[in-house]
Amino acid sequence: MTLIIHPIRKEFGAEISGIDLTEPTTRAVKQQLNTLLAQYAVLVFRKQALTPPQFMGAAEIFGDLMDQQLKKYVLADYPMVGCNSTDDLPRKNGKLQVRGENYHTDHSNDRCPPKATTLHALQIPHSGGDTQFVDVRQAYDDLPDSLKETVKNLKSLHVHQSSRSPRELTKLSAEDLAKIPTALQPLVIRHPGSGRPALYLNTGRMEGIEGMPADEGYALIEDLYRRATDARYEYRHRWQVGDMVIWDNQAVMHQANADYDPEQKRFLYRLMIKGVALTAAQ
Ligand SMILES: O=C(O)CCC(=O)C(=O)O
Ligand SMILES: [Fe+2]
């Protein structure tokens, strides 16, 4: 098997062909795919048709599977496999309320957040429902030197939901909330695979900046978030049925879009890969 790599940007996003993800992969191919994920941060595999066990096998190329945290959105027969489905979504004034709207990083409030998240598309609306990614490594590289100096030793407390977050969809009861971890995370991390520094942001879950007055901390987070979500750092994935897309949670932020006809079905399987504790960049 020879992988064919089509970079989407220079070092950000790559479409990989020459692989059938229902087939077992060799150690060498596994290693190559992990290196490609660390380098390109988002990998796209087209025209795959994976059953839940095959999708689990494909995801395991990148590491051990992690439990889904929102247990009500999993497949009954395969509880490791989450589903992003239109069926279970509420509507407000006729508009879908999708999970994952607004740029975020999955489960940043875990001490060891997922290394990667992957989706496999089974049904896609005729238009809309794209997933967007921004490259937070390049966003860090492009910060003015003085701002790099300011942020590189800072930490932020990540919680399930910041007291300033407007998110409603994944709001938890006080009882469930008490079981959810919080974690103090560096604002600039070093990627364990590529060695590249990256901003580590998740605005809706960041409870300010450690050691900074609250307003100043939130203002800094807002400023970094605004810079990192600039269109020049973006790859917008237009889904096709059969796509498997995997992204590196230490290199990108991502967001879902609620811009499609609520009568049209969107259904994707979802898996997460276990990660390690984050390392500060300095
Ligand atoms: O459904 C999507 O486009 C992405 C949703 C999301 O944020 C996730 O699955 O982590
Ligand atoms: Fe997400």
Automatic annotation (TrEMBL):
Domain TauD/TfdA-like: 7-272
Example GO molecular function: 2-oxoglutarate-dependent dioxygenase activity
Keywords on record: Dioxygenase, Iron, Metal-binding, Oxidoreductase
InterPro entries xref list: TauD-like_sf (IPR042098), TauD/TfdA-like (IPR003819), TfdA_dioxygenase (IPR051178)
SUPFAM superfamilies linked to this entry: Clavaminate synthase-like (SSF51197)
Transcription regulation keyword on record: no
Similarity field: Belongs to the TfdA dioxygenase family.
Name assigned to this protein: TauD/TfdA family dioxygenase
Lineage: Bacteria, Pseudomonadati, Pseudomonadota, Betaproteobacteria, Burkholderiales
